[in-house]
Amino acid sequence: MRQAARADEYAEFAAARTGHLYRSACLLTAGDTHLAEDLVQETLGRLYLRWGRVSRVDNPAGYAQTVLTRTFLAHQRRRSSRERAVETFPDVADGGGTDTPLRLTLIQALGRLPAKDRAVVVLRYWEDRSIEETAGAMNSSSAAVRTRCSRALGRLRELLGEDIGTYARP
Amino acid sequence: MPADQHGDPFENRLSAALRQAGGTFDSPRTGLSTAGAARGRRMQLQRRATIAGSTAALALAGVGGALIVPWDGSPAPRPSAVAATGGSAKPAYSADDMVRTLQKLLPEGKFSRTAARGTGEELPPLVAGVFDDGKGEGSVSVGLGRIPADGGGINPSAAVMPCPDGDQTGLDSCRTELLSDGSAITVYQGYEYPDRREDTKAWGADLVTPAGHHVSVLEWNAAAEKGKPVSRPEPPLTTAQLKKLATAAQWRRIIDAVPEKKRTPAPATPQGEADVQFQRMLSVLRITLPKKLKIVSSGGQGGFVHVVVDDGKGRSYLQVNLQLNMSDAAGQLYGSDAETLPDGTRVATSQGPGEKGGEGVVMWTADTMRGDGRRVVISAFNADSQSTAATRPEPPLTIAQLREIALSPHWDVLGG
User: Fold this and answer.
1) Where does the record locate the signal sequence feature (chain A) (predicted)?
2) Which of A3, A90, A102, A129 suits a disulfide with A123, CB 3.0-4.6 Å?
3) Is the pLDDT of residue B173 over 80?
4) What span, in angstroms and rounded, lies between the C-alpha atoms of B40 and B178?
């Protein structure tokens, strides 16, 4: 019976968080929605495996985001041990969303960042994590996150211009 | 609002833009959360199955040296799984059967210090040991595998190890021939160290049959492939004996007894499997690192392992990355200045500044790729992390040592 209750609890959590995890994954993968779905599935699978522990942490949603980030970074490492910004953009599958100029421009700019820098940007500015929390999620040091963050901001400034608001929908 | 913590107006604008853009990705397809749970259940089953098979593999990584490729890095179904599905029962061969088989096929002499894997293991069958015909010890190993048919037939000539082209092959001899049963065999005489800094000779025979059996025999004129002095002028078996040993029908019967891998899409690496892989890589690193380096901490997951070592002169960070099936990226990864060894392995080394901002940090790397696309990259730093200041002028391992670790055959027995 306890197992059934736990399964229900997991199902409820997954149903509530899948949408947000998917949108985070879309940003991490710079718009590759197929890969994003796969990463979310993998993340949910890992959470399922450890649900007993996950359900007891203070912030299961934050924990899920950390698992997603690590799953994404592990995927990138398997692809290549060297960081390299993507030169060509993935076919942005139409997930039913609206390709606004802002989204296209932002996704393209994110795609030009190395994977770890992109993860820092997503955690810091989409998830609103602190430097320390970002470092924890990425198994990295605060100093390394600061370096990545300032490098990524510099690059995004170059690509997007100082006034990102130009691309925003009216 | 946490975004307000950002001091720079650009950061605030970026945050707002991300939220706006991220929100335009519509909800994922229905059923994604259910699919996630299903993957979790699969992982749970695989985790239970893989951990059971890891101990034997670890033990063999310590003695191994067989240049054979595991099926594809995925754990093969265990015999009990085959029985449970009601498939036709195949005879199983134990590790002892492997040892006895090789013993019978070797010429008169003493075969000792053996280690083996049978057909019920996660990794393919293997037997290794020291053979002494009375004229000195030589290490001998036989690895068995199966070449996947990939829908079409198997062309043994294309699948067998090719002899390198040109005069400077680094081999004393190499010959591929077609046998009357349609099999192809390459018999070669080469050296353990391509730069011949030691006289250890490595001879071998590589056989592929039309049915996809793959037999790889290796022998050395020393009691181990590396780290032992030469104990005789040449390895114990002649090229004719190598050929006879590789073509023995016994090996094919054993390969036939290995359960076939089920043709299902490969699942992404589950966490449990990744942990096992990390432990195996750490075990190989322990074996291949010089003894003076003490591992003080370690971490990693999947095909990635990092350690901090101490030789008494300052702690240093080392990392190793193992990747499979990277052949298609070889052109990008290894430039024209990369070295190609006689067996087709590509090697690129580099010495440069660290990438993560630690003051005075240097990063030395040996990046290698076997002919089958198996890539092993090892980097050493002169600091105990990539982002902290240097603890010593140089990493504790030379480029030559890094190269040797990356080229160790111990990595070849690991899956992906």
Assistant:
1) none
2) A129
3) yes
4) 48
Domain ranges of chain B: 47-256, 271-413
Rounded distance, CA B286 to CA B306, Å? 12
Look at residues B316, B268, B236, B8 and name the one whose alpha carbon lies nearest to residue A35.
B268
Q: Does B415 touch chain A (CB under 8 A)?
A: no
From residue B408, alpha-carbon distances to A133, A142, B259, B271, B376 in Å are 38, 35, 28, 26, 9
How many residues does this entry show for chain A? 170
Q: A139 to chain B: which residues are within 8 Å by CB? A: 299
Task: Examine the pLDDT at A92 and tell me if it is beyond 70.
Answer: no
Is B86 near chain A, with CB under 8 Å? no
**A2-167: CATH superfamily:** PhyR, sigma-like (SL) domain (1.20.140.160)
> CA torsion angle for A121, A124, A126, A128 (degrees, to 10)?
180
Q: Report ipTM for this prediction.
A: 0.86
Sheet with B362-369, strands from edge to edge, namely: B294-301, B304-310, B315-323, B375-381, B362-369, B346-353, B339-340
- Specify the pTM: 0.40
Q: How far apart are CA B410 and CA B286, in angstroms?
A: 11
CATH assignment of B271-413, given 3.40.1000, 3.40.50, 3.30.1370, 3.30.300? 3.40.1000
Amino acid at the residue A146 = R
pLDDT above 90 as % of chain A = 29
Residue located via tokens 């009375």: B134
- Flag whether pLDDT at B342 surpasses 80: yes
DSSP assignment, residue A125? I
Question: Is B122 within 8 Å of B115 (Cβ atoms)?
Answer: no
CB contacts of A153 in chain B (<8 Å) are 8, 10-11, 14
DSSP state of B328: G
- Residues B359 and B391: their CA atoms lie apart, in Å, by 10
Q: Is A4 helix (H, G, I), strand (E, B) or coil?
A: helix
pLDDT in tens, B226-253: 556 888 999 999 999 999 999 999 999 9
Tokens of A61: 């949603």
Q: Does B173 touch chain A (CB under 8 A)?
A: no
Q: In the predicted model, is pLDDT for residue B68 greater than 80?
A: no
Mean pLDDT of A72-99: 54
* Distance separating alpha carbons of residues B366 and B345, to the nearest angstrom: 12
State whether residue B24 sits within 8 Å of chain A by CB: yes
DSSP assignments along A135-147, one per residue: HHHTT--HHHHHH
